[in-house]
Give the backbone structure.
Amino acid sequence: MSCCKLRKKFFVSICKREELTYLILKLLQAWKEPLSRFNQHIESLQELPGESLSKAKQISNMVHELESGVEKVTEKMQSMGIISNSLHGMASSEAAGLSISNEANVMSDSDFIHCFRRDSNKVQSYLKILKCRIMPENSC
């Protein structure tokens, strides 16, 4: 069973800003360790061009920066009363059952990249939805 199918049931119902913000954070956090392992794996491949390795590291850095940004936005929304403080203390991906590092160990590189792309698209969509729920006047 792929990582994408394992988490599918978790994303069925999204109705509140808090839940949406939580899902975004959990997806980003769940990918930190698998991306780190993937980078280590591709570093060991002799035939891989340096450009590919650089791109993989860039993606990992972008995920980390995006997670930091979402955490800052979450704090700001909490301070403005847009969302409650119910997200406070929910920092580990294991708390949501979203750890994918075991599945990532047995996946092919193409399956891994496929799942990462799907989750990246989900994060992008969820961020757009969250923006529209917070600021509906922004032509949503």
